Structure formats: C-alpha cells, structure tokens
C-alpha cells in the first residue's frame, strides 16, 4: 500500500499513513484528519484543496484541474502554473507521495472545512499527460 506523508511549509512531517492504491488523495487526507480545506467538496470547482506534491508527482492530471488552473493563472495567480501544484480532489494515490497542504482551515477565511468528498474523482476525469521537469525532485 502506498504511503502518504504530509509535510508543513518547512518540510517537517505532520502526518504519515498508508492508503489503498487508487484512493483519491483528498479522501485520504480527510479520512486521516489532515487539516485541509475542501470548500466545493472535491469537485474541481474551487482551489482550496490544493497541494504541492514533493515526491510521487503524478504523470497524469485531469482536464478539470487544467481548466481551473488556466483560469486562475489568467486572473493573475501564477502559483497555479507549477508542475507540482495539484488539486487533491483530482489526484489518485498510486505510489508513495509527500505532499504539502496549501490551505489549512482558517475560521476568518472559511465558514467550514467543507463537506466530505466522494471516493471517486469528480467530475468524471478526462486524463491528460503531466510532464514533471527534471529539476523537480521526484524522489
């Protein structure tokens, strides 16, 4: 079973757990009580469940994520144009991963962390190839 390691912004390990291969990353994070906001409930409609994947970057991404990130970059948010930025609701855990949560819960900014998410990727994924540059540590 793949191991998911969650790190803080300084790289310190906050959580480690194993999940079944094929588990949606957001579902795994919620089930293991990781502090992550998921306002839209895991439907690629917001960007609150975004993560940076430091190890185990997927070679596939969803069209829904790509469309949302393109829109956000065009609106002046260049942080979404990064090869390791993903919506955790659009990632399937298939190998060991190390991830950093980008938006933990803040009661001033958020009404709640969000509702639970489905086990499957929604909307139905259209998969695109995702190229991970050599300079981003894949190990």
Question: Which consecutive residue ranges, at least 5 long each, have pLDDT under 50?
Answer: none
The domain count comes to 1
Q: Give the helix tally.
A: 2
Question: How many beta-strand elements?
Answer: 9
- The SSE string, one letter per element, is EEEHEEHEEEE
Q: Give the radius of gyration.
A: 14 Å
By CATH, the superfamily comes out as Beta-grasp domain
SS-based structural class? alpha+beta
Task: Identify the strand order in the major beta sheet.
Answer: 2-1-8-4-6
Q: Could you explain how this protein is built, in words?
A:
- With 139 residues, the chain is an alpha+beta fold.
- The chain has a single domain, classed as Ubiquitin-like (UB roll).
- It contains 2 helices and 9 strands.
- The mean pLDDT is 93.
Strand and helix layout:
Elements: E1 3-7, E2 13-18, E3 23-24, H1 25-31, E4 50-55, E5 60-62, H2 63-74, E6 85-87, E7 92-93, E8 97-101, E9 127-129
Parallel strand pairs: 1-8
Antiparallel strand pairs: 1-2, 3-7, 4-6, 4-8, 5-9
Summarize the structure.
By secondary structure, the chain is an alpha+beta fold.
Keywords:
139 residues; two-stranded antiparallel sheet; globular; Ubiquitin-like (UB roll); alpha+beta
